[in-house]
Amino acid sequence: MPYNHFKAIQPTLNGFFTSPVKVAKECFKSSNNWECPINHSPYILPQIFHSVKIVTINYFTLLQIITTMKTILLSITMMSFLASAQIGYTVTVTKLMATADDCDGGGFCLLAPQDPVFNVWVTDAQANENTNCWAFNGDNAMDYGVWNDIADYELANESYVNTNYISFDMGAFESDALSTDISCFAGGLDDNVFDRAFNKLITTASMPMNAVYTDTLVVGGIYNMVIDIIWHDYASIDENPNELAVAISPNPSNGVFKINLTDLLENEFEVSVYDLAGNAILTDMVNGNQSTIDLTNQKTGIYFVKIISNNRSVTKRIQVQH
């Protein structure tokens, strides 16, 4: 094949990963052998033939090389996917802060009451998506530059997901709406508007397992959101034969929830409840395989329930919302 003809089809060759048969057929349609200037094509064995300007490759040999390379690439992709563990995770939003000055109806007023709107989306490798919007209207808790310790909101709670990361998108704006009905979507007069955009990707490798990981999402240096993430690997749980089978419901709750040992061999257990600081706030010995726990005197937030029976134990995360 003349070199000029090769140059004409080189763009097709450079894309041979997507259509190897088509490229091979076009390159050899007039001959069973092809004189290929290897050093002019960055994809075909440049390391092996870097010092050879022209080499003859049989049609079927080239086709076999291309097919093998595609198989290798596919294997690498599959291994990368399989490397992501099957996990469960929760994402909870705990605090919000804004530094967006506001004059309702337009204009700019230094340190005026804020009406910020926060939008957040959380996704994973299996395309699970959870979202929520917080809209404030003249709320004194949203003073300029002051953290609003909102009621903890469980944004995501996913189980048995093949992922090794959790990704966040955010959008936000300062509402100039004159009415008390503030939308989660920005209007033409709103200020400091940021449409939905990627914000942060957090890998499971960067977070401790079975513990609270806290991070902050920031949009434009104006809108801030604190999140808590807890994740666990089901493989590590399944490998623990001493873990009790326990169901807790409802979760989240208003503070009253039931514990049910689904392992019928157990007829008594010890239950302890801990706050995020690790302080025990309740301990009780239960006769039977179920009990009702009352935490209505505790503040809204995340707690951990540890159940022990016959030298077997399990710890569950619960959320109290008043």
Question: Could you characterize what this model shows?
Answer:
The protein is α+β, with helices and mostly antiparallel strands and 322 residues long. It is built from four helices and 17 strands. The protein has helices spanning 3-14, 20-27, 59-82, 234-238, and strands spanning 33-36, 55-58, 86-98, 116-124, 129-135, 153-162, 165-174, 191-203, 213-219, 223-233, 246-249, 256-261, 268-274, 280-287, 290-294, 301-309, 312-320. The strands form five sheets. The protein has a four-stranded antiparallel beta sheet. Strands 5-4-7-8 form a four-stranded antiparallel beta sheet, with no helix packed on it. A four-stranded antiparallel beta sheet has the order 14-13-16-17, with no helix packed on it. A hairpin with a 6-residue loop joins strand 11 and strand 12. The longest helix is centred in the first third of the chain and has 24 residues, at 59-82. The relative contact order is 0.11.
Helix percent reads 10-25%
Ends apart, CA distance between termini: 78 Å
Major β-sheet annotation: 4 strands, antiparallel
Global mean pLDDT: 75
Instruction: Choose one word for the global shape.
Output: flat
Tally of extended strands? 17
Low-confidence stretches: 1-55, 77-83
Which range does the strand content fall in? 35-45%
Q: What's the Cα radius of gyration? A: 29 Å
Biggest sheet: strand arrangement: 6-3-10-9
Question: How would you classify the helix and strand content by structural class?
Answer: alpha+beta
Count of helical stretches: 4
List the helices and strands in order.
HHEEHEEEEEEEEHEEEEEEE
